[in-house]
């Protein structure tokens, strides 16, 4: 099975030295890529700026902006991918105009005009046609409102699974307050190491791909149900 993964932040240039971005390290996507590759799957990892080392056996495509990430993702997934996991923290907006050189200091205030970036998860859902699409929802809302937002995102993006988690996950070694949200159920998983969550997501994709009939190349082994906590790979790697 060919699994296409996005990871890390994007950087949206203001000028030649400044940019808009966020604190994503990219580690979640790299963990999913490593877990999928270790189970014998073909993996393409489209990553924004990240210091994470390339997992063994994984094709890594390095990008910077959201537009570059969308183009690289679509090239990998649209025709050849069997499933995708969208862990990247894509900047929602980019400057409407990039200043050539360095923006000079002078005024006490300046106005930066922003335009919307591509919604890569939504575009993935549109072209998936039954292939599993996994997205993430990082929320700072109270638990009940966060769950409602994740369910709304699941439908709006035509996703198969949304991984709801808390904003304290950003830059952390763990994923905090995980709830795995599908159209059938919402399974609380608490705090998980990124490696443990990665293995669980790969198992989910394998099982869902078989159910959807798109799982050619799925590794032949006993797939654990989502949220059951069975881990054939042994102890969690932190």
CATH topology group of the domain at 2-95 and 118-133 and 194-212: Rossmann fold
Q: Give the mean pLDDT.
A: 89
SSE string, helices as H and strands as E: EEEHEEHEEEHEHEEEH
In the CATH hierarchy, what is the architecture of the domain at 2-95 and 118-133 and 194-212 at level 2?
Answer: 3-Layer(aba) Sandwich
Let me know the number of strands. 12
> Which structural class matches the secondary elements?
alpha/beta
Q: How large is the count of helical segments?
A: 5
The geometry reads as globular
Strand order of the largest sheet: 5-4-1-6-9-10-11-12
Beta content comes to 15-25%
Helix content: 25-40%
Radius of gyration: 18 Å
CATH superfamily of the domain at 2-95 and 118-133 and 194-212: CoaB-like
Q: CATH class of the domain at 2-95 and 118-133 and 194-212, anyone?
A: Alpha Beta
Largest sheet: 8 strands, mixed
Distance separating the two termini: 26 Å
List low-confidence stretches. Answer: 215-226, 228-238
